[in-house]
User: Fold this.
Amino acid sequence: MTNTYTVDSEIGTIVEVILKRFVGGFVYIYLLARVGQKVGGQETRVDLDELMRVLSYTYFAVIILEVLSLLASTSGSIALSLVAGIYGLYTLILFAFVIRRALDKGYGTAILTIIIALIGLLVYLMIIGALLGGIFGTTYGFNPE
Assistant:
């Protein structure tokens, strides 16, 4: 069983991928840094620019996760899906470790930061999805064969 894409709007698909994947990644990093600063408190030694720089380097793990997830969804491989799931857990642990180290706080603060930033990212993605849906309609979809 393989999955194929059906592209309904080429321009809409390009805009959606740019706004959701590319810009969404930067929104997530910004939210992680901002929320981390707020949750970490005034005694946190790292400034916002430094935290964003460190998190941006860590974001490469998410890019690899995107590639693995795409390969797993298009190939239909259960083993590749399992690898992508385990690697997804690793990326969350990596972000928690980086935030904990940067903020000089415990893992509870780091996990809370990740959860709040993910909620913010989901809100961003829903708003972008609604706007793009209103402008372009359905842009693309998966067709299992």
